[in-house]
Write a structure and sequence with these properties.
2 copies of one chain form a homodimer. With about 450 residues, chain A is mainly alpha-helical. Chain A folds into 3 domains: about 130 residues, MgtE N-terminal domain-like (MgtE N-terminal fold); about 100 residues, Roll (CBS-domain); about 170 residues, SLC41 divalent cation transporters, integral membrane domain (Tetracycline Repressor, domain 2), CATH 1.10.357.20. Chain A is about 70% helix and about 5% strand. Chain A has 24 helices and 5 strands. The longest helix of chain A has about 30 residues. In chain A, about 40% of the residues are buried. At the A-B interface, helix 13, helix 15, helix 16, helix 17 and helix 18 of A face helix 13, helix 15, helix 16, helix 17 and helix 18 of B. Chains A, B: It is found in: Cell membrane; Membrane. Chains A, B: One of its GO terms (molecular function) is magnesium ion transmembrane transporter activity. Chains A, B: Keywords: CBS domain, Cell membrane, Magnesium, Membrane, Metal-binding, Transmembrane, Transmembrane helix, Transport.
Chain lengths: ~450, ~450
């Protein structure tokens, strides 16, 4: 399907069949066109561009991936880029400029219309993952004393150029955001009423420096189509629309899953081999430290192991189960933190539940393991020792699995990033120490 | 802040100050009111209900959590519930009914208006996580030959009762969905034009049985505010709105993270101790199987370990690093699958990259580990063996970390659920076998 489209479009371009190209594109979404174009080499891309109205090309580029946007713009002269930008929204332009070298960015900005330049430079000033960094400046804001009749006129005028039409932002004379008006209410209100009569004054808004994760959480909680961004004087700076919020949620989720697995959020399965080495090796080296700590712990008991070699065979069970139980607690807590459901201050008492769980699950798994080892090696004391060690290690797993992410959160370190390394260290080192330590204490019974 | 509101509202209820309660609620969002009410006991809740207009109460209940909805309805008589439902949308009613015992559900349905009953029963027929299960039947659908003037009249009429106003769904005479019209375009079109003149015929739609994850992916890809759900005859059945899509994305993500950590998607940090035991213990028991496999593998080499006890101390390093490297690959692949970026058929060649990565990262970590073990035990052969075993284990980790989730996907098993257990088995069993097997082969050099 995708390959068919790509080949078909390629042929049409090669044969200069402009009308057919335009007809073909008519039945496709800009995002799907962008996906096809990303596979083209520069020659085809440049030729394609020459067939397409600049407005349509701008729409396609707005939907394309970052890398492709930059690649495409590099095919153009500066003045062509500026013409191109005239058809794009200021927040998209700011995003693109933010990824260009400073020299080119400055050159382009000086060539653009001064009104846009100012707004774009303001947008460029916000961090990429803040409300200001993801907001758009295309919204409808009207004065509170505007009549419904005039409001409708204004909406017809501005509507086509704006991203959100179903919510109108209402400003007072000082240009402060004082309410929002729902287009539904505007449509049915008497024509002589004013916006202030029908607006809702309970406005959820954010400051431009607010983290995008918080912005997404608010939009999701209040089922908003867009959330206004205001400065400290309550002046409206822009809005963040729900489609960008979805991107934020997906991005933050990707980050969490990858970080939990010890991968950088920038890596993808199809990153180059070199990139993958550079991104993954450091994490493996950090983990090597943990592995050596575990190894040294075992090393302390080499004399015991040399006398009772069955201990070596039982070691992977102790470490493995501690790791598994700890992961369970860790996943739950990390997810609860991401959903804003839990904090150390409010919920620290839940650690006692995790400890109880460690005792009960540990006893269960411990009895089972103890019995099998008893049957295998014929020594009941080995079974009893692993039973006790299993309870101990699962308590440790629950205790640290619960507390580590919450403490990291308080320290403003991403729990998804660093929790697992501390947890593994805890369960491995304590787990081995407990198991082999008990074995050493009761060595005479094991021989 | 939250506690203040709760206490204030409690006092107002106790002192029967109805007007102040209503004034207080005026400044709060329904979702925030619901959060406060969830903390009330039944007595306060019932009294609160008696102060509030039924319409406002219905709005609050629509926003509340599932458990609270059921708890609240249990306070009401059947006829009260039916009156209550009259103020709620059919999809919310269907969701609530779906969670009630069949007897009560049937009793309520027979008491309701017959038109609603039919629609609700249809909604109840769809799986909870399908497009049909999350769609709403509140949308605006108009005939294609309707004039713009009449369209605007209709929108004013239906608009206030509908969830989405900025997109109008356009039907032909056979009631098939033939296009969508953007309210922006309707507002600026000449009054005598028809909907068919301005509608967009490229409609992205889904079938009611479509999985909610696919629905979310489409809405996110095409930046939609809502996606229409049509049957096989292309008749419009409902729409899924973007706010529900956000819930789906967050829910699916929670599921993925919890499953990767070996926890059921139904568990939360504050689930009861008994629930947590019931949910987590089965997973630990399954993992115990893996741990025993690893243990048996080690057991095969007990004679070697008893002669070179340093091997026992090095074991955690081999197993740990294999697990870490495998997790890296696994996280990347599982996330790429969730984002629809990768499939076994299209991307199987990437396994060679993972294998190369295993060789390179394994060599790096292996040299480092080998040198430290050489320094610690003074035997170069132990270092060489762990170097070779490390490369082997990281290749295994990359190979299985890449293929396991993709194969599970083909078999229609959730990769997030079962991948880690197979991967751990592979890295532990092969890892130990390789390391201890090499040690056995070169035993004379190690003594």
């Amino acid at each position: 399907m995708f390959e068919d489209r790509k080949e078909l479009l390629k042929n049409l371009i090669q044969e200069d069949r402009k009308d057919e190209i335009l007809g073909f594109l008519d039945r496709m979404y800009p995002i799907d066109i962008a996906t096809v174009l990303e596979e083209f080499d520069d020659e085809y891309l440049y030729k394609f561009k020459s067939f397409i109205p600049i407005e349509q090309m701008a729409e396609i580029i707005e939907q394309a991936g970052e890398k492709f946007q930059i690649r495409f713009l590099k095919l153009l002269h500066y003045d062509e880029i500026v013409t191109f930008f005239a058809y794009m929204s200021n927040d998209d332009i700011a995003d693109i400029l933010g990824r260009l070298p400073i020299k080119i960015r400055k050159a382009l900005l000086t060539m653009m219309k001064s009104g846009d330049t100012k707004q774009i430079q303001e947008l460029l000033g916000y961090a990429e993952d803040s409300a200001g960094g993801i907001m758009t400046t295309e919204y409808i804001a009207l004065k509170e004393d505007l009549s419904i009749a005039d409001t409708l006129k204004k909406i017809k005028e501005i509507g086509p150029k704006t991203e959100v039409i179903e919510t109108i932002y209402v400003l007072n004379r000082k240009k402060e955001l004082v309410g929002i008006a729902d287009l539904r209410d505007i449509l049915i209100a008497p024509e002589n009423q004013k916006l202030m009569d029908i607006m809702n004054e309970n406005v959820v808004s954010v400051k431009p420096e607010e983290d995008q994760e918080i912005v997404a959480w608010l939009v999701s909680k209040y089922d908003l189509n867009a959330i206004p961004v205001v400065n400290h004087r309550n002046s409206l700076l822009g809005i963040v629309t729900v489609d960008d919020i979805i991107d934020v949620i997906v991005e933050e989720q990707t980050e969490d899953i990858l970080r939990l697995g010890g991968v950088s959020k920038e890596e993808r399965v199809d990153s180059s081999l070199f990139t993958s080495i550079r991104k993954r090796l450091p994490w493996l080296i950090i983990n090597l430290g943990t592995a050596f700590l575990a190894s040294f712990t075992v090393g302390l008991f080499e004399d015991v192991i040399s006398q009772v070699v069955a201990l070596a065979a039982a070691m992977p069970i102790v470490a493995g189960m501690g790791g598994n139980a700890g992961s369970q607690t860790l996943s739950l807590v990390i997810r609860s933190i991401a959903l804003g459901e839990i904090s150390l201050k409010k919920n620290w008492k839940l650690v006692f539940k995790e400890i109880s769980l460690g005792v009960i699950n540990g006893a269960f798994i411990g009895i089972f393991t103890g019995m099998i080892l008893y049957m295998r090696y014929g020594n009941p004391y080995l079974g009893i020792i692993i039973f006790a060690a299993m309870i101990g290690n699962l308590v440790i797993a629950g205790f640290f699995g619960f507390l580590i992410p919450l403490i990291l959160k308080v320290l403003r370190v991403d729990p998804a990033l660093a929790s697992s390394i501390f947890l593994t260290t805890a369960t491995d080192v304590f787990g081995f120490f407990l198991f082999l330590g008990l074995a050493k204490m009761f060595l005479p019974y094991l021989l």
